[in-house]
Protein 1
Amino acid sequence: MKKVLFAIAALATCMTASAQLWVGGALKLGNQSNWNDDKSGTEWRIAPIVGYALDDALEVGLGFAIGGTSKGDYSDFNFRIAPFARYTFLSEGDFSLFLEGRVAYDYDKVKDADKADWDFRFEIEPGIKYALTDNFSMVAKLGGIFFDHNNPAASPSTARQNTFGLDFGTGLSLGLYYSF
């Protein structure tokens, strides 16, 4: 029995030693103004992420985001939780290319609305990672393929929507990661 427990402990130690924990995220702050009216708007988002490298090619993690928008009388608050898996299919020197699959749950509460909108989304995004040092990396992701189920409860006149699509034009995301 002692040998079995020792073997399990040794295996767990080897798995932990080969894995790597990392943290990172992104910040967003934007200002929008329309030519049609005098009102400008502000959008903000804080999106921390934590991941665990299981080996050189596979990582798993969890992303969070909180944010909001305000323009004139309109304002909202939103929240996202998104577990993900990332597969690195090409590594050359400090560069690596990956695909990231994510399942996201979004919650959006509009000020003065009785109910909140919620959204369930599945995404696959391509990305590139550049190791700046042994501990710091920069990551860029661009759009991808998605399926989205939206329940717009704040707007009862709007029906639930299912959307499938490609989005490679507007979804550039940059982040900085620190590996322990």
Protein 2
Amino acid sequence: MRCRLFIVLLLSSCAISQTPDPTPVDGRISGTVVNEDGKSVPGATVYVSEEASSLVDANSVVARTNVAGRFDFGRKLKHGVYEIYARKEKDGYPDPTSKFYQPLNFSPQKVQLFGDQPAEKVTVQLKEKAAILAGRVFDADTGQPLKAGVGFINLRTEAGSHSVLADGKFQALIPANTDVYVMVQEVDRDHAHWSLFTTKVTLKPGQKMDIEVPLFKTVTRSDTPE
């Protein structure tokens, strides 16, 4: 008797889990991506995700703007409330959901899809433009370029960090209007230990700065006592 009851409950559970989602999937979001001057932005990447899910969720739907800065997700979205944002690193607009770049007042734009075959046209404005930090990493004694790992920490958020590899030179987008700590993390050349380089920069949106990073060889690893 207990065995039969268990089987009945199991089958009921499977039937419920296999019940199709009754939420219609004919919603549509389209529109235009613009910059801070209101000009349309071609080649931008636009993301939408359901409000209850994470913005970086794997289920986010992605579209790209055409030459006129327009995008269209088509009629394939479930009815509900969506969050939408855009990015275009090539023009200096990084991912605003990243802890490294995220502005303190960041709040994704919301779009509601309800009713009969809902369709919404929206204008998505790119968030604050990042700054650009470029540099040259080299041996202070010989002037030879060095391979290095360069790390960046957003001192405003503390949890936000980013890193790039430098093969003699590097260039990276960094958040604007905030203090960013820069550190050469490691250099592996001739199995040597090198001096540590650190600095702090604060740049304006769109500003580019070039820095020189001279490193001094301190001791070879073979000279390090065991």
Protein 3
Amino acid sequence: MRGTVLYGPGDVRVEQRDDPKIAAPADAVIRVTAACVCGSDLWPYRGIEAIDGPTPMGHEYVGIVEETGDDVTMIKPGQFVVGSFFASDNTCPICRAGYQSACVHREYVGAGGAQAERLRVPLADGTLVAAPNVPSGDLIPSLLAASDVLGTGWFGAVAAEAGPGKTVAVVGDGAVGLLAVLAARQLGAERVIAMSRHEARQKLARKFGAADIVTERGEAGVAAVRELTGGLGAHSVIEAVGTQESMMQAIRSARPGGHVGYVGVAHGVELPGEELFYSHVHLHGGPAPVRRFLPQLIDLIWNRKIDPGQVFDLELPLDAAAEGDTAMDERRAIKVLLRP
């Protein structure tokens, strides 16, 4: 099969790889209908995150089940499925508490490289969620968004305790940040402040429900949020970048007693203990337990209550995957959908 492989910074190739096979009784093999480039892929693409030799790329996927192992009972060949980037059994105590991304048996699905024609998914019954039927083509982008960026933005909003009567600020205008705006509004937030410098992303944030746009960053961004909230700060802040600046901007934008949901993959982030102590700000985040939310998200998408697929503003064939990475690296695209 064809699949993408990262050889080094800026060096993405589409090449022939071995077809995946059932390796354990709980596995499934799916034919990938659509995959995509993730903002987190840019860390190794830019050389900021080291890789140990040629690395298959991609961890977001939807597709048709082709084959299942002997222990798989809930997922059937022919079903259209959405899965998460972490495989989980969905039965361990951690999964039952809603943190499938920390399952005691978790496996990283991305190790197999979802930017490919086929993908092996471990722990299929606990990882994959079947759609009611094979969807129409216009629903594919939104269902693909559910596999990571929508689920991650949703977790960020839940972790920040977005809800009725709350003002929510979102730090980051990538796909996760934009879908955190959508999630906050779906959870009933009264007001959402999106922090973005880019006109196209600002427009999409407003379309998803943002009432205000803050273009400043750092301390200037914090001051702007406080000005919009009567000097207090937001009740809820969602951090969707993963840098030192973005994390501190998120913490300082929250009011005392407020909540920060951080879902940007952290790189070089160090938190000042004394400042946190006196801030009275709650912090909660990490790799999103997307599996917790998938049934609800698929239902909302299937019934056309939400349209998160709008974050895909560039679609390419799998063979042009390298162009997709470049477009996102240069911020010419919010998110790139790949068709095998």
Protein 4
Amino acid sequence: MVRTKPQRVTQKCKKNIRPAALALLCLQTDNLNMIRNSSEPGYLAGQFLAAMPTMGDPRFDKSVIYICAHSEEGAMGIVVNQPLEELSFPDILEQMGIEPTPTCDSITVHCGGPVEAARGFVLHSSDYQMDGTLVVDDTVALSATTEILKAIAYGTGPKQSLMALGYAGWGAGQLDEEIKSNAWLNIPSDAALLWATEDDAKWDTALKNLGISPAMLVGEAGHA
């Protein structure tokens, strides 16, 4: 079961996950509704974080994170712009005994964060929901079951989806402190940024959405 209290990020995201280990992917009966969200002002579920060049953590260099859950207990999100070149969606399906279809070849697997890098998540449009799905907002949800993988493979899944291994997690108050220390920029919810922007353009696009020039920001970091 997915951790109900997000933990501090402590291990580097593993981009070389051996196929034999894929059978251990925890995409079975995780009840993501155990993750708590808060509707109070100041919490960021359904929004993005863009890493500042000055944050000093190479694991999140130019990362864009979609926040799936945020409350006084902590936060949990998925990095949405770090593709895993060594691993394909058909690889995952085959290791889980699911027959890939030709449409699966175009689905990119992402490194969702350094916490529990062998745990799989599917961030997707909320037109698809099932038992255990975490509904983030009116348009986006998160699932972690084999059923959604089958649905995507067979063309009966959500209209939009993003597959990721691992997640980014913060303990109580940790994310708030990191934002105050200018490690992250908060980006409002944007469907085009999540679903219609190429991975290598998401960080630049996120900054431009705030009226910030990426070149200027990187230049200032270089002279800090």
